[in-house]
Task: structure prediction
Amino acid sequence: MRNSKISGVGHYVPERIVSNKDLEKLMDTSDEWIRERTGIVERRYFQEGVDTTANMAAQASQKALKMAGLEATDLDMIVFATLSPDYVFPGSGVLLQRELGIKEIPALDVRNQCSGFIYALSVADQFIKTGMYNNVLVVGSEIHSSGLDFTTRGRGVSVIFGDGAGAVVLTPSENNEQGILSTHLHADGEFAEELAVLDPGSNKKDRLTHEMLDSGSIYPHMNGNMVFKHAVTRFPEVIMEALQKNGYKPEDIDMLIPHQANLRITSYIQQKMGLPSEKVMSNIHKYGNTTAASVPIALSEALEEGRIKEGDLVCLAAFGSGFTWASALIRW
Ligand code: UT7
Result:
């Protein structure tokens, strides 16, 4: 079976920068608390009427296509990871297809939150490995800022999330030593409600009620401490799984791109893996946590900064709502 490789990468973030100081005006929080507990300094928020989950994805995708030297019409499939689709249904994949002006190719939405991009990458990889498709667009795009509780009640979650999009183009690899070496996907539904938006849900006769609006159950709820504890266990576990599967050790990693959940989580993983900071990508200070978009945005910036070169061993890893966690090992 043939490998797939990442031939193009791109990202897009909305223009509007929202600092921790801006959030201080809305809720009882402080720049100091947010920096110390999360490492976040600022994040981007979408502009209504300008940015949508699908059109941000399209901008990231155009950049990825350009780098791959392909036209949108060369694509065989779209895999779109998001927890913040433009509509309840249809998914944002078809909207991206429309934005890109390409008809009839399949568009699949993936709902795995922070791990969504790596899940989507794995799906695309399988289609290329089997020979069914050649050029697959994989996207993570999120608009969080229209769905956050900006009162003090929601501060534990709202200060963390930001908006943005990242995309990669996957194509067949010429040799089996290069490209995506393996992907590793996991989930544990026991913790489904520990990081979730519970309403409006289809399991209630009245999907949206005034009580839901008043109680704030329409906003993300997170058991932060519990998520943190699982994250620092699962990240190293799933990174080691990828390394062991391919006969590598942590010191073989040239660049680790972890999902940007919290700088303290990233620092813990870095320490646990024994990696120097130049081998671990971190841009959470600029964008916060953009869930499914965070890994492709970080990958795109690492490339732009010249931190990944041909032949490097690159590891992607994520953990988040579900709980779900995942990794991918790539020979660049
Ligand atoms: O991307 C998906 C995966 N997500 C994650 O991995 C997130 C994992 N969790 C975390 O990153 C951290 O748990 C948080 C950043 C969410 C919270 O940090 P923490 O150090 O676990 O704080 P905490 O929730 O234990 O709260 C400590 C205190 C509390 O006050 P008391 O009870 O000690 O008086 C909170 O009410 O900080 C308070 N607090 C805040 N204060 C100022 C919570 N949020 C804020 C805030 N500003 N925004």
The chain is about 35% helix and 25% strand. The chain has two domains: 4-172, 179-331.
